[in-house]
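(Protein data)
===
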Amino acid sequence: MYVADKEVIPQTEKAVPIVGKKYGAFKNGNSYYTSAMATVQDLKATVYNGKENVPENIRAGCNGRMFEDSDNLALAVRSFCRRNPQIVFWEEVVNSK
């Protein structure tokens, strides 16, 4: 798990489940546990400690592919991140008129 934009790095007051440790604070490069049926939105909620804490314009993806919030996380990683399963979060800039 990596966050590309400093503005959207999670402010973790509560510890979140991280692979290799039972709980810990966010830092780039951490691995996170999810269920087999988890969606990309579920991953965001895990990293940001709840759906209410996820910034509005956060996108996730890997290798130049952007995931939709409703995508199954396991299938998206298997399909698009074959040899490099590093998911990146970034803030999408939206131009409003």
Remarks:
- Residues 36 and 70 are 14 Å apart (CA to CA).
- Helices lie at 40-47, 73-80.
- The radius of gyration is 13 Å.
